[in-house]
Amino acid sequence: MTGSVTYGFVGLGQMGGLMAAHLAGGDLVVYDTRPEAMAPLLAKGARPAAGLAEIAATELISVMVRDDDQVNEVAEALLPRARPGTVLAIHSTIREETAVALAARAERYGVEVVDAPVSGSFIGAEAGTLAVMVGGTAEAFARVREPFGAWAGLVLHMGPVGTGTRTKLARNLLHFVAFTAAAEAQRLAEAGGVSLSKLARVVRHSDAITGGPGSIMIRRTTAPLAAGDPLREIMRHVRELGEKDLNLALELAGRLNVDTPLARRALEDLPASLGLTEEGTR
Fold first, then answer.
1. Of 64, 108, 258, 260, which residue is 20 to 30 A from 148 by alpha carbon distance?
2. Active-site entry in 44, 168, 198, 244
3. Residue 130 neighbours by CB distance under 10 Å
4. pLDDT tens for residues 161-182?
């Protein structure tokens, strides 16, 4: 960390402990209900808190606990004790309304809340390359941007409180739907006698080059593309390739008697997904 801001960190599990490790030093105060979770950070120079009251004395507080109930429990202990001007950052993935309600309660104490969930798993947490999606005022974002940069490679202000969480939920929708699609692809490959480990190598290699699903996320709106939009030709080309390949995969699935409902839905929805509204060519 830079400067003299005191940083409190609550919740030192698989993610929180790795994030806090990038901050460890005399300005970091850590708390977890498990003393053994604090030990590695104390060895790096962090100060232990005996309870949440000591965390409340810091100027920036990060909370990485399990769920909405734990977030509310921690916040209820911190807010009455926090000094006006404190920023309370919630990194847990919670309901957006929880973050909004918490921000409203915090106003009574002069505390600013940012909902700042992260993406990148424990790999990014260990490397210090997480993406953090911050919902809050511009003033609060300005105060957290540099400290968050100690454990994140991408720090974005998404808008007011709640938008950080909405961003995370949209991102994770893509993540876990893709897991289901991966299983469907593996069933097709397995039925065709393809090595699943080699298929996985191909997917990881090519996604690292193309960016995977993110490579197609280049429109500013999901509304249909206007007739003169230069993206129409790009998306029409993507559609032609996608429809050809999906049809071929569905034909193979039919021959191998593999059910591929996501592929069928993708073929049906592909034109609209790309912003194209005209009749598809199947």
1. 108
2. 168
3. 26
4. 999 999 999 999 999 999 999 9
